[in-house]
Fold each of these.
Amino acid sequence: MSEKSIDQATLKMLSKAKADNVSLAWDRLAAQEPQCGFGQLGVCCRNCNMGPCRVDPFGDGPSEGVCGATADTIVARNLVRAIAAGAASHSDHGRGIASTLYASAKGHAPDYPVKDEVKLKALAKEFGIAVEDRTSQEIALEVAETVLDEFGTRKGSLQFVNRVPLKRKEIWDKLGITPRGIDREVVECMHRTHIGVDNDYVSLILQGMRTALSDGWGGSIVATEISDILFGTPQPIKGSCNLGVLQADQVNIILHGHEPTLSDILVHAARAPELLAAAKEKGASGINVCGMCCTGNEILMRHGVPLAGNFLQQELAIVTGAVEAMVVDIQCIMPSLPQVAACYHTKVISTSPKAKFPGAEHIPFDEHNAMEVAEKIVLAAVENFSNRRPERVNIPSDRMDYMAGFSVEAILSALGGSLDPLLNAIKSGAIKGIVGVVGCNNPKYKHDQSHINFVNELIKNNVLVVATGCAAIACGKYGLLLPEAAKNAGDGLRAVCEALKIPPVLHMGSCVDISRIMTVAAAIANALGVDISDLPLAGAAPEWMSEKAVSIGTYVVSSGIFTILGTVPPVLGSKNVAELLTSGAEGVVGAVFAVEEDPVAAADLAVKHIEKKRLALGLEP
Ligand code: XCC
Ligand code: SF4
């Protein structure tokens, strides 16, 4: 058991699942083993019905598919399709939020007033939209229309790319990878990877980069910016996390998925006096709404809502036997949940027309009558409280406090209004550099271990860590998001954290909020008059598994930031593709990927990279 996770709550629930005879992701992984070697290398293709084909990268079997596609073509096509899927996911999420702003501005979504007018106006100005003598509704309407236009823009390039330094834009323009329209890039990926279109691995990967950039500087950034406008820009906030946040005497509702549209409203719905009274009537002392995965990050950043756990804990939350409803929207929701829930009393409630789950109850959510639907969902959970079977309940006591909510605006205000204190700390070497640690969990690797060991090594070496997604949740569970964690940091970083009263690991939000990290990187580069690739920065996804992570890694590298992957991507079947990603890209976009499964060695790579960049900037390494 202990080889599966470093997290005590997780280990306890793994034992309970075994006793309760519930099968989990780890069991299903064991049933898959050995996993397909061709798949692991990325050399199988099902893109047409002359196949499926697989080529043998070792030269013993066929070296081409029926159409003549080589390992290079097949591996690159598969990678590009993964990027397209990841970019589409983030971007469609962004579209959803932008559509909500549009509906709100049109007066059709009364439960979604603009919460951050300052940010609305700032974004309007960035887009050249007039703000003087206009109501916030008028501004919101034009902002929403402009942002929605980015999905199919005919203007030649996305507007948010204007945030990057000129040097970066020139690199993209020269390579022809400046993203045009968000949807257009995804569509072009699907077109190019159809049989008999783009067969050149270099050309394919360049399109993959352009698509990923349309996510990082398009769909994801839209999701972040518009969420801030609608739900409020996060500010430092405290709360607690891990499965111990579930309450034995309350109705427990877990919100799992990604879009704040549902979760933000549901947090408010659960405070309605009638619903609290209904809960009391059922014998519960209250209604406890908790988050999970990225929608959890969204509401913890804005409301300090307790966070039940990260990706590999979704099934385990149900195994506690104490969850009345697991309410899900989109992305990273295991289709196994209804099956796990069948062993307990938990209701799995799906809400998005895009994401249905056999065995789950579907309560369609839409922005036009949001509060009404949210109350209906909470009531369903409350009514389910009497079905709880006390003999099946076991909530692990493990929980940890966190401080989260470090939006760009919050970081600036912690710094006293300007980036200077941070720049000075970097120049003096008190902070050597910054590493963004992001991404998922993956049952092929010990849960949370790589995240924590990697981050601990970095802070010891005076590297400030910014984290999002399930990586940030992992950090939360081990106390790394508390200002006190600075005591484990190197002297320089510790002093900075103590002076600013911030943790050495800044929780910057959900996965779409990696756009916040990119915005900070661009702002630092602009302030220093250099390119992003000149900065002492790195990115890492120590336990990634999703296609979204592939898109993220690719836009981070394409933006000029060295990125370390902790789980091996399926590209090793093509030496050329692997070589391009891990070395050739340096001369093209000024950054590469590295793959390192050992988190301590990975931290060493990051630190060495940062030292190299410092030296090149004329700073003490
Ligand atoms: Fe999903 Fe965003 Fe990965 Fe977590 S980190 S498993 S993508 S929830 Ni984005
Ligand atoms: Fe095989 Fe080519 Fe068809 Fe892929 S596109 S399945 S390699 S014939």
Amino acid sequence: MSLNAPASAIDPKTVEDAAALLRAGQLCAFPTETVYGLGADATDSDAVLSIYEAKGRPRFNPLIIHCSDLAMAETLAEFSPLARTLAKAFWPGPLTLVLPKRTGVALSDITTAGLSSVALRVPAHPLALELIAVVGKPLAAPSANPSGRLSPTSASQVRLGFAGRVPVLDGGPCSAGVESTIISVAGDTLTQLRAGALSREEIEALVGQQVLDPAKDAAITAPGMLLSHYAPNALIRLNADAANPGEAMLGFGKVSGTINLSPSGDLHEAARNLFAMLNQLDETGIRAIAVAPIPLDGLGEAINDRLERAAAPRG
Ligand code: TXA
Ligand code: MG
């Protein structure tokens, strides 16, 4: 494997250092408000290929393109009035829009896996925004974890996942803790391809229309939606009231545990803690983790989605 990164990476200390790596066609992980991203210049096919190599990700899985603002995003995709309304309301923020790709844009075909659509977002993290602006180009960035593993919400988790071989711009812990919500905009129809850190209810309240789910019999339109995607080493048992012998317990609200996602039952706090706490229990070497029930409203939809994937039979 010719990973386009040194055997032991030196972390960039400043945004300028990180930008220099990216401009030179190398990878650099950077913080966003959701999870850390493994960034590459989205116009450079060789750089983007090294993302797939580093992650061990199936080639067909397209990447999210990160922009510094709506103006940069509009150079890459066709924005309908509905798409623009969503972008203006929720960017910078944890919303990814899947839109028709403009023809003749400089984006590497590899970022979109040959699709005629493109997934775009403007992240709400000052370092990410500064980094994209300094590079002056859109950045392709999937979550900075080896494929199939938990998404990292701190720089140290990124280093652990890639055994220190990928440089990381450290921006502290992520505030949202689960990935962005992915919405496809096709004509007047909004379809949620992935539940995420922006709740369906907030989107529906803004636009005054329903956000649909992908048709059950449709081909997988967001490959991140493959079952068993977010998998810790330990087996996961959901909707548990208490731990069985040999299990660690991840609590929520009044259901206490080894650790608790949110003792007060706050879903934002639980989302922020989800991957970090699963990682924390996983790193103890425990064989199984029981997880307290999480309500399905608001951010609970995304949390339950990630937990069901973590609990799914392993492929
Ligand atoms: O919060 C996030 O979204 C994080 C941070 C780093 O921004 N990024 C992230 O990216 O989760 P990634 O690459 O792990 O997830 C990308 C998802 C995949 O499920 C992929 O299939 C879907 O976006 N996707 C990308 N382009 C698409 C397209 N044109 N049509 C449908 N789905 C697309
Ligand atoms: Mg991911």
